[in-house]
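Exercise: predict the structure of this protein bound to fe (ii) ion.
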Amino acid sequence: MRHNISMTRRDFLRASTVVAGTILVGATAGRFGRGLARAKSSAIPTVDRLAVRVVVDNAHDVLVKSAKVGAVDVQRVGWGIGPNLQKQLHSEFGLGFHLESQRGGETRHYLLDFGASPVAMLNNLDFLKIDPAALDTLILSHGHFDHFGGLVSLLKRDRGKMRQDIGLYVGGEDTFCYRWAEPPGGERQSTGVLDRRELAVANVRVITAEKPTVIAGQAFTTGAIPRISFEKAFPTPKVEIGIRDGAGCDASHFSKEEREGKIVPDQFQYEHATCFNVKDRGLVVLSSCGHAGIVNTVKQAQAVSGEKKVHAVMGGFHLTPAPEPYIAQVVEALKEINPDYMMPMHCSGAAFARAVEKEMPGRLIVSNTGTRYIFGV
Ligand SMILES: [Fe+2]
Ligand SMILES: [Fe+2]
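Solution:
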């Protein structure tokens, strides 16, 4: 293995102790545990610079200009006018990122989530000139199709260009469960499944990161996110526990009561967030759907890293379906955390963006498909 480092929680603690020579306090929370993982920040690498490119999001606006917003360089794509005017960015209800981090002289490239469809993901990777050969690793936040939708097609098209030992980090077994949507009063509909046989055919290693994990020596994941705040998973999505037709998730990873109900409310047990600690700036936390709650997610990133300062919180916060009093409560909690910048995307909702603009003046940066954020240096 060149530089992908997957750590169990025990390894994680051991490494921290060795590197920092310090005693770590607290304990990793198990499923829905109340405790937060705590570690000295020396267990988590800092990076000098981080570039986050939004490969797929719900919308884009070619007329927004690039600008320096405080400490963040915000680069917009614009028209991207070239010889083929038909080749443009595609937006859809999904999310996908390309991440590029630097530490010293070393650069790492990651794809985090893959949009809802191959149409958008593959087109936009080409449009944005993201080279599959340069990727060090792949990360999937959770098992919803609007985040893994472009993955298998990407592998079918570009796996041959990628490094031979590339891996896909997932948060846990529930990534592979069949998913269902059940709108109130409506009919239950399948929202698909990520079939791990497709990953095996593509020779992609699946690395399960239930615990906080350092990736490629520069990024880290939260591991399963403890539910310590008032936040709740909105109950519409459902999860099917078990294997069917060769796909699905192993029921032995779930509690007896979940196994008894074949299709149950989805608690997003192993959704995880990808984070960086940017030198002299603080944490950048990338939430993809935010089912575990954005406040819970950021607090877990703080606890895992030992870094209190939060520079940016970005991604999907799953607040579109939330009532306004709940959104107000989330914004209040975020004000206490005091991030420098908020970039809500995807499922965060317009009401949340309005509340951030009002209650956290100067912190909101409106995001678009194609937008690239440069943090640090
Ligand atoms: Fe989701
Ligand atoms: Fe989503």
